[in-house]
Write a structure and sequence with these properties.
Radius of gyration of chain A: 21 Å
Mean pLDDT of chain A: 88
Number of strands of chain A: 11
Helix content of chain A: 10-25%
Low-confidence stretches of chain A: 1-13, 245-249
Oligomer: homodimer
Distance between the termini of chain A: 61 Å
Largest sheet of chain A: 7 strands, mixed
Shape of chain A: elongated
Number of helices of chain A: 5
Strand content of chain A: 25-35%
DNA sequence: GCAAAAGTGTTGTCGTTACACCCATGC
DNA sequence: GCATGGGTGTAACGACAACACTTTTGC
């Protein structure tokens, strides 16, 4: 690399700083109506033995999204091409990594509850597992580095996006019921919603869900079979689904 | 810095890559009802003589936000402590900078139309100026690097935030009229809104604006004086102001 | 009075809420 | 029948779009 530093500062006295870059992942899924995040146990210093977000260093020829997708596949075995993946933000505090100057670009990945969603043993992790996000009304904390801040920001972003976008379907398998979609909102918002009004709202929302004509029996085979839907083409909800009203089941 | 690269990859064959980091700024303001973005003309290669977003390299002891604030002050003379400044995202494509591996963290800065808002001559810029964002219905493009993509993303972010947050007041001086606030929406959304309905909506919105009891005469001293307001404490709008209906003046 | 901009009234429409109710199924 | 979850009806309420109208000022 040419010396772009002194060239860009006529004073000549201030050099830019080279840093290492990581892509960290907040991978969310819902299991049995509970919001889970994929965490690894660090296998080495710093923070050895502590929970952290999965992630890893940027390599030659990769941009941040490439690195995030690679880490996603390495640590979970999930196909990155089929998952919703979007930036949360960058975290760059000087002291955030005791090894030196490392900034991270955090990504939010949303996954359906797949048959085998448990993160595999990763290259830089001792083990990996799904962990409950909420403990009561609060968000799980006590992660390595500044990862609890990243987690909180990512959860907030996911909560916001449910209001204004159709991203909730990313938590679902290709075919899903309206009840399952409601469970997504309830899990991510950590609340409960009125069943009837939710049903009408998403059904009437343009481009949100598309009926497949097929049905599925409820768990336990007790009750009326539900209509199955797939995700529509829409991205933004014209009428946002606002948090604020919580009703009984 | 210790060698964290090989240490974090047991295979030992893949090293992390060190990169340079810049903070780039999309500084928006409104002048006479027109949305403007601060652009510099590059004073050196690459892209010498072309328009670009103001920005610069991260220095020792700075995080991204520090660097953004420093650049903001250097290039515009604006007080970063008084401006709304938020992340847009990171841009990290391998070929985005011909000098080598440089990633950027883009920030959106929103400024009121100050008495002397013209960006000052910056250290790495030949000149700086406010440039119209919209040309007809389209967004101005043809910037250096991937800055036109950054600009488009930042504009979209600003447009979205106007719907759901009280950020519009950041475009205004400490005291403003409802008409001026409406001009903010009209400039950023590049549309026109119904005067009467907008008036009622923001007036009734909780925590958005607070009356000061003072009034100001319209430009030209023709017409009824308008009530003056200041920004309220609220951040999120409970009832979003949705784009979609455009009415006459 | 007139022009201009601020601000209010009014009405129909549409989305939302709360809650009652019906439907389809397995047991 | 009964339990269970899916799905619809409905009436009160609130937000909103459209647009007419009034108010307050300088000239």
């Amino acid at each position: 690399m040419t010396d772009v530093g002194t060239a860009s500062t006529p004073m000549g006295s201030i050099d830019p700083i080279e840093v290492l870059v990581t892509a960290d992942l907040v991978i969310l899924t819902i299991q049995n109506g509970i919001l889970k995040v994929a965490l690894v146990v660090r296998g080495e210093d710093p923070f050895e033995g502590q929970f952290a977000l999965p992630g890893g260093f940027l390599r030659v020829g990769e941009n941040n999204l490439d690195a995030a997708k690679r880490e996603l596949e390495e640590e979970t075995g999930l196909d990155p091409g089929r998952l919703a993946l979007e930036q949360v933000g960058s975290y760059s505090d000087v002291d955030r990594d005791p090894r030196g100057r490392v900034i991270t670009c955090a990504f939010l990945a949303i996954a359906p509850d797949l048959p085998n969603p448990r993160p595999r043993r990763g290259s830089d992790a001792r083990s990996a597992s799904w962990v409950n996000v909420f403990h009561g009304a609060d968000i799980k904390v006590a992660l390595a580095f500044d990862h609890d801040q990243i987690l909180r920001d990512a959860i907030r972003q996911a909560q916001r996006k449910l209001q204004y976008s159709t991203i909730a379907t990313a938590f679902c398998l290709p075919e899903f019921t309206i009840g399952e979609l409601r469970e997504v909102y309830e899990a991510v918002w950590n609340t409960s919603l009125d069943r009837a009004n939710f049903h009408r709202k998403v059904k009437n929302a343009s481009e949100f869900i598309v009926p497949t004509g097929r049905t599925r029996h409820p768990k336990g085979n007790r009750g009326r079979p539900a209509e199955l839907y797939r995700a529509g083409e829409g991205v933004e909800l014209l009428n946002p689904i606002l948090r604020g009203t919580l009703a009984r089941s």
